[in-house]
Design a protein that fits this description.
The protein has about 700 residues and is of the alpha+beta class. The chain has a domain of about 300 residues: Alpha/Beta hydrolase fold, catalytic domain (Rossmann fold). A hairpin with a 2-residue loop joins strand 26 and strand 27. The chain is globular and about 65 Å long.
Length: about 700
């Protein structure tokens, strides 16, 4: 995909979506816990610290907890983990954290060195040293957000750093030759947004330019062109979106021979427009459906459809991947090659270009299959991916799509540590690295099962269990899920899950419910807005299937999820309390009446609906846990966790739900990391602590 396609996809999904607290509206006057929406207010933080102290006293005071926390931290800090790399010029760069580098090192090596068991690394930026040298106000510390280095000489980079882990960050210019910050270089003050290279002296900038320059979701709605040596205020307008849009951005595709400038207008999730910016500054829209994922590589335009598209006398299925020559398309031609077409059991998990090949990654009943399509004078040819593993979750990414046919290939599953191989398309992969074994999984086995949801839909899920499991319904079982934004849940190796759960004899299940992307757009769209309940019915069906198979019972069944998965957990808590013995609710959405007014919430209305419209609140209130809670009902024990600096999902969701349930004397506890952003933790120590809290709580509630 083009960088812009990757960026927009990240903004639309994984970015989950950030916005400044200033964009939240006034608290609801009829909510007795509205004061907890004051993210950094003294009263609210005093309440947070009091709740944290109670949770720590209950969960973190035992030797067992301290050992588990130490074990997880050792896994996170392990210097034997695979150092994932990105090729930038002649070097391979890696961002690395361990016990000696809590905030991380940005470092580089050569491919020859990287092939070695212990490569020699050259430090480029040491964030811990930077934090010592630069004292950020309020005791915050820099958190790495990434680098964009200018082709083709790669002498200068734009480095994004977040103070404390929030999505708001700064961008600073860095010299890769001297390994020094450019004192008079480009600098973007802290805000949501970014910079992107046009040339050595010009960048695109999309950020907070002052009142009216951000969308209602708290993202940039204006992109400008900024010349070196001039004040940011003098940058010239490139494009201005509307206040109700989600995100406006631009970039230059620097592919040699195919340089293009592209402007993206993201209106809402899976609703965007892509424009070609001509040399005279005018914009030409790429006239493809707004719902399609549009990306450009060299002479090719690819369109991944999310809805059926009738064009050129033919109808193309939702979930299909189409390709055409970019210049022909812009000239009005509508002739496409269908590179992938979904079936009832298959969907496109992803695709990635090398210089001249396109590698397709297809999910067949949530299991990866790789293939290669190649354009040529006689049309496109199709071949298998040579040497692809037959099992496990597979991921492919190009090493250098401008110059090379090489790809990185990773393979993993619940019990097999991740391996990294280097493969030239058409040749057998060369295994380079493997993660160490972090836990004893020899006594476990993996299975895939299907539950039947309320409306008869077959819902897949993965199960990891002891080989000698007695089917007597007593096994402590942890069920995990997400079910939103077309994100697929696939098997992966987790040292934390392994050490904290599996190695102790627990059973782990991963649900592939509607709302996700396991069967493509149709699986996602089946649980949007008024149909949101189908995701929750699917998850409850998986929980029931675990009981029906006598793997576990409600008293021994726990569940866990975060963000949209935290909303899922809130609905399991309020709608299916009898099915679970314990619930961990992480960085959740819970107050669905106010979610669109808190931080980035307005950007998710395509997923959930608009609660300010009475006809939509009519169905949204049916999956709003904060409103479904009934103080007269019995609920399973709950642990809420969140982060003060989460500027995607407002911590007020978890705070208010905790306060409401505590006032009704329910079995609840709460832990809020004062630092860390939407991921919950800003460094490995914080991450280990929060994971250990969750597993300790689950074992206390579900163990025999």
């Amino acid at each position: 995909m083009s960088k812009l396609a990757h960026a927009c996809h990240a903004v639309g999904i994984a970015a989950g979506l950030a916005a400044a607290g200033a964009h939240a509206q006034a608290p609801a006057s009829d909510d007795p816990y509205a004061w907890l929406e004051d993210v950094s207010g003294d009263k609210a933080l005093d309440w947070v610290r009091a709740q944290n102290a109670k949770a720590e006293a209950e969960l973190a005071s035992t030797p067992q907890f301290k050992q588990l926390e130490a074990d997880i931290l050792a896994i996170l800090d392990s210097d034997a983990k695979i150092p994932g790399v990105e090729k930038i010029g002649d070097y391979y760069y890696n961002f690395w954290k361990d016990k000696h580098h809590q905030r991380g090192l940005w470092r580089r090596t050569t491919l020859e060195e990287y092939r070695k068991d212990k490569p020699a690394w050259e430090t480029v930026i040491d964030l811990d040293a930077l934090n010592e040298a630069e004292q950020i106000p309020d005791g915050k510390k820099w958190v790495w957000h990434g680098a964009d280095c200018l082709k083709p000489d790669y002498k200068r980079c734009l480095i994004a750093l977040s103070p404390g882990g929030s999505d708001a960050d700064v961008t600073r210019e860095f010299d890769l030759e001297t390994k020094q910050w450019v004192s008079d270089g480009f600098f973007r003050p802290e805000a949501k947004g970014g910079l992107g290279w046009i040339d050595a002296d010009t960048v695109y900038v999309y950020t907070d330019f002052g009142p009216g320059s951000m969308t209602s979701s708290g993202y940039p709605r204006i992109v400008k062109q900024w010349k070196r040596g001039t004040p940011l205020e003098s940058a010239t307008l490139v494009y201005e979106g509307g206040p109700g849009d989600m995100y406006i951005a631009a970039l230059r595709d620097h592919t040699p021979g195919f340089q293009r400038d592209l402007v993206s207008r993201t209106i809402a999730f899976y609703n965007d427009e892509l424009y070609l910016r001509r040399g005279d500054g005018t914009l030409a829209k790429i006239e493809a459906p707004n719902s399609a994922n549009k990306s450009v590589h060299r002479e090719w335009l690819t369109l991944e459809l999310r809805e059926p598209w009738e064009v050129g006398g033919r109808t193309y299925q939702a979930g299909s991947l189409l390709a055409t020559r970019f210049d022909d398309f812009m000239a009005g031609k509508r002739e496409f090659e269908v590179l992938f077409e979904p079936t009832a059991n298959s969907s496109l998990a992803g695709f990635d270009w090398t210089r001249s090949h396109l590698v397709l990654n297809v999910l067949q009943d949530v299991k990866n299959q790789l293939s290669v399509v190649t354009p040529g004078e006689g049309g496109w040819t199709r071949t298998g991916f040579v040497g692809a593993p037959g099992i496990g979750t597979l991921a492919v990414s190009a090493v250098d799509p401008d110059e090379s046919e090489a790809v990185w290939l990773t393979a993993t599953d619940f019990l097999t540590p991740t391996t990294l191989s280097l493969a030239q398309v058409g040749a057998a992969p060369e295994k380079l690295k493997s993660n160490p074994v972090f836990f004893d999984g020899s006594k476990h086995t993996m299975e895939q099962h299907f539950a039947t949801s309320k409306d008869g839909t077959r819902v897949p899920y993965f199960l990891v269990r002891p080989r000698d499991l007695a089917l007597d319904g007593t096994a402590p079982t942890l069920l995990y899920g997400y079910g939103g934004f077309e994100i697929s849940m696939t098997p992966s190796y987790s040292g934390g899950v392994g050490k904290g759960w599996l190695e102790q004899g627990g059973v782990f299940a991963l649900a592939n419910i509607r709302g996700g992307g396991e069967y493509g757009p149709r699986w996602h769209q089946a649980a949007l807005k008024a149909n949101r309940h189908k995701a929750y019915e699917d998850f409850a069906a998986v929980a029931q299937d675990l009981v029906d198979r006598k793997i576990t019972s409600p008293a021994h069944l726990g569940t866990q999820g975060g963000s949209n998965g935290g909303l899922l957990m809130g609905n399991m808590l309020t709608q299916y309390p009898d099915q679970f013995g314990a619930i961990v609710v992480q960085v959740p959405l819970l107050d669905m009446k106010r979610y669109n007014q808190l931080l980035a919430g307005a950007s998710w209305m395509a997923e959930y609906g608009d609660p300010d419209k009475p006809e939509e609140w009519a169905f949204i209130q049916k999956f709003s846990p904060y409103h479904l809670f009934d103080p007269a009902k019995d609920y399973p024990p709950v642990l809420f966790t969140t982060s003060t600096l989460d500027d995607r999902v407002h911590p007020g969701h978890a705070r208010k739900m905790m306060a409401k349930m505590a006032a009704a004397q329910k079995d609840v506890r709460y832990y809020e990391n004062i630092e860390g952003g939407h991921g919950g933790a800003a460094d490995n120590k914080q991450a280990a602590h929060m994971q250990a809290l969750a597993y300790t709580f689950l074992w206390q509630q579900l163990g025999e």
